[in-house]
Amino acid sequence: MTTAKSTAAQNTAAQSTPAESQTAAAKPMIELKDVHKYYGDYHALRGISADIRPGEFFSLLGPSGCGKTTLLRTIAGFEDITSGVVMIDDKHMEDVPPNLRPTNMVFQSYAIFPHLTVEQNVAFGLRRDPRSSQDKQKAVEEALSMVGLKGYGKRAAHALSGGQRQRVALARALILKPKVLLLDEPLSALDKKMRENMQVELIKLQRQVGITFILVTHDQEEALVMSDRIAVMFEGEIAQLDDPETLYRLPKSRRVADFIGHMNFLPAKVVSDVKGQIDVEVQGLGRCHIDARQAPGGDTGAEASVGFRPETLTILYDGQSATDREAAGSIEEVVYYGDMTYYDVKLDGVDEPVRISMRNVPGRPVLDRGARTRVAWSPTALVLFR
Amino acid sequence: MTERSSWAQWARSSAASGYALIATPALYALLLLAAPLATVIYLSFMTDGPGVREVIHTFTTENYVLTWTDEIYRSIMSRSLFVSFMVTLTTVVLAFPVAYFVSFYVTPSKKSLWLFLITIPFWTSYLVRVFLWKVILGYNGVINSGLLSLGIIDQPITWINVNIGAIVVTLAHAYAPFAILPIFVSLEKIDRSLLEAGRDLGESAFMTFLRVTLPLAMPGVVGAVLIVFIPTVGDYVTPDIIGGGKLPLIANVIQKQMLAIDNMPLGSAVAVSAMLIVGTAAGLFVLANARYLRVKK
Amino acid sequence: MKSNGNGLRLYAILYLAFLYAPIILLPLFAFNDGTIIAFPLKGFSTKWFEAMAEDGVLKGAVINSLIVGSCTAILSTTLALLAARASTRFEFKGKGGIMGLIMMPLILPEIVMAMAILVVILQVFGDVLGLPTIILGHTLICTPFAIAILSAAFQSLDKSLEEAAYDLGENKWSTFRLIILPLVLPGIISALLISFTISMDEFILANFLGGTEPTLPVYIYSQLRFPKAIPVIMAVATCLVAVSISLLIIAEYFRRRGVAKTGGKDSGGFL
């Protein structure tokens, strides 16, 4: 997976989604061109190139150690780069320190100044602002209202809960009206309920404020929920940069496919590849034609395999018939979740079982382990990796 | 493609700031500690001159020969080592139960209060405390006069004053907090669930202590031993005041040689020898307990 | 485990009594009417304190101690600020060794340091002993304590706080002034007080490096061989200990306040 290919693929993907073609034409807010960073001998960022659009909610997603936080801090100015170009709003930033960049950051630990009140925290960045103190006070109150902390101004900062601190951090950053807001794993310290609430609130906030948000997270669900586009990173490189749906439906590599949600893989053999139509033989499912767009990763010469998401296959009950293709197998494992049931089905001719998810609606009883079953599938659900 | 200049990168780097800040205190320590110590080592190999504080800069090992072979010095050195050993043993053994108590039996909110109370005496003037022990243990001192006036004894007790025992008690008192704190820190670090697991598997409380608590507390014990042993060798105030000058320890010898007798090379040699012996003893002790110290949580 | 808690508690209390016993004697005999430090007590009297107030040499020694203590406190705390900041915030080669050297006075016998410094001063500068040389020696031994206190204060500072300040538009100096300094101020005060107290109580270095200028402990030492002077010394020592303990309590108060302000956890002292 070379950078050149991903850049080319990015362009095709960008052109293919109509909703973004408007913003794609506008000048990027952030341009990263072949950014490399070394920590001594350790190559942390390996040739990162990406454009981030104004007003978009952009996420950097990847496992720990992949370089996403390093990249964020590079944009913020807290890390120097070894080579490459970093531009924000069409200006070079390589020599600009963090306090002079049009960015503001919400830190993972929130970094609320414990010896100041909420008000003083939020107003901190306005210290050098020439406005009158009444104007500043007004701005502080507006900022607090915007994050849902109206009336909290006089509270001591160190006495707040985690969620409240985060809002103070947001208010403190947004009051300065930066062009880009950077968020370093802002939700990782919160419990599940709080996290889900904050996800929705952040989306609303971003729409309200209208500026570019760049979020770093290792939680793929979070990224899918909140982002306009996601850059999936592994080991210092961007593996794929796309909107959530494209990432989910058309991942470019097995690694990306596996990182986002669950993907089933089946060994496959490419019989022929002619003018946008690929003829594949898939173990357990059979032979079919798929469109070239269903092979977004191109041809790397690796062993071919085919992937599909659990919800794209359907278990056929007695009397039902497949609208497209059908395969047979036996049920190895049943996991009941209440609203969904997950079946591990061992398709005939395949060693590894595949996971199929079925919504539990009337007319769909939970099946037994060991039962024989028929499975409906469609070639359009397949993604080819080779 | 812009290549950052490596000098500019380093200048803004962590290391450069670190060096800039540490330069002043490091220089101070260099000038006031390293240089003087080096001078002492240097002088120990020099010859004493006839004049006051005069040193002839000719290399000689005579000072060391004298220090190590002369009967008087050897006996004083062994006495000093013995005293230090006894003090260390008494102090650490007596300190351990206190540290154990505060770590395991005191509610967490009160722990720092206890530690504070334990360390307060340490912060008062060492000289005053030594003097007070003399007053307490003396022939006409507090203990004797108290016991006499209460009618418990007819004659003042002599075995508590002017001897090794008195010196040991005084030093044990002075260094007690030094011993308690490292042991306490070690005990605090022990995962309580380990102990519960031991009990759960049927061990008695005492066996759990022997087989789990004590080995895990060893780093603290070793630390306590070192913190008490090394400085006590250099103590001359206690033998001077308590011993009345009749029981000189090695530190008194050093002091006399350097000042009263004005043989700085010899005094330096004695000092260096004493430090070497102490350092070796300490090193051996640490090595002997190495397997306990290697346990990292 | 709860079974022998009381036994240990009793032991611990006895131990504390052992630690405090000598100190309790001080006020006991300082207010005692008798001239010998022995039981039975002879009745309440403040005459020793009155005699103390009239002693001119004693007054001089107290002033010397105050001067030395203040200078030592300021010097040590300043050096410690630099060293603690360097060691907690930055990585550089040789850091362990350099910090080891600076902290070494904690475990070196004082006489070795006193002798070594004395020798160097006498050999290189001749007989220039006096208050300045005492200050130099005291700073050497107080700095490690100050570093221990300030390192703890700096450790509890979240590194992101500084970065947040930069991010919001401040530079290195204003960040130090607005964020770092207020948060370590309790630690600074604590370090100042501890250094002052150590210096005020210290005897060995003051004795060797003071030349003809006595500090309070040196003065006390010189009086110890005169039995008549002992009761007055008890009064002096009582005051000295009372002041030391008061300063310590204040220092501890500030240390705790510092920990609470940053929302940190109390680990129980300068460990």
Q: Any overview of this molecule?
A:
The complex is a heterotrimer of chains A (386), B (297) and C (271). Chain A has 386 residues and is of the alpha+beta class. Helices cover 25% and strands 33% of the residues of chain A. Chain A folds into two domains: 3-250, P-loop containing nucleotide triphosphate hydrolases (Rossmann fold, 3-Layer(aba) Sandwich), CATH 3.40.50; 262-385, Nucleic acid-binding proteins (OB fold (Dihydrolipoamide Acetyltransferase, E2P), Beta Barrel). Chain A has ten helices and 20 strands. In chain A, helix 5 (133-146) packs across helix 6 (162-174). The model of chain A is unreliable at 1-23 (pLDDT under 50). With 297 residues, chain B is an all-alpha fold. Helix content of chain B is 76%, strand content 2%. In chain B, strand 2 (47-48) and strand 3 form a beta hairpin. The mean pLDDT of chain B is 80. Helices cover 75% and strands 0% of the residues of chain C. In chain C, helix 7 runs antiparallel to helix 8 (172-201) and helix 8 (172-201) packs antiparallel against helix 11. Chain C starts with a helix and ends in a 10-residue tail after the last helix. Mean pLDDT of chain C is 84; it is low at 267-271. Classes of the chains: A alpha+beta (386), B mainly alpha (297), C mainly alpha (271). Chains in contact: A-B, A-C, B-C. Chain A binds chain B through residues 34, 80-85, 94, and chain B through 1-4, 9, 12.
What brief labels describe this structure?
heterotrimer; A: 386 residues; alpha+beta; Rossmann fold; OB fold (Dihydrolipoamide Acetyltransferase, E2P); six-stranded mixed beta sheet; five-stranded antiparallel beta sheet; 10 helices; 33% strand; disordered N terminus; B: 297 residues; mainly alpha; MetI-like fold; two-stranded antiparallel ribbon; 3 strands; globular
| Total count of strands of chain B | 3
Distance between the termini of chain B: 46 Å
CATH architecture term of chain B: Orthogonal Bundle
Mean of residue pLDDT values of chain B = 80
Return the domain count of chain B.
1
Assign an overall shape of chain C.
globular
Which regions of chain C contain 5 or more consecutive residues with pLDDT less than 50? Answer: 267-271
Fraction of residues of chain C in helices?
over 70%
How would you name the CATH homologous superfamily of chain B? Answer: MetI-like
Helix content of chain B: over 70%
How is the CATH topology of chain C named? MetI-like fold
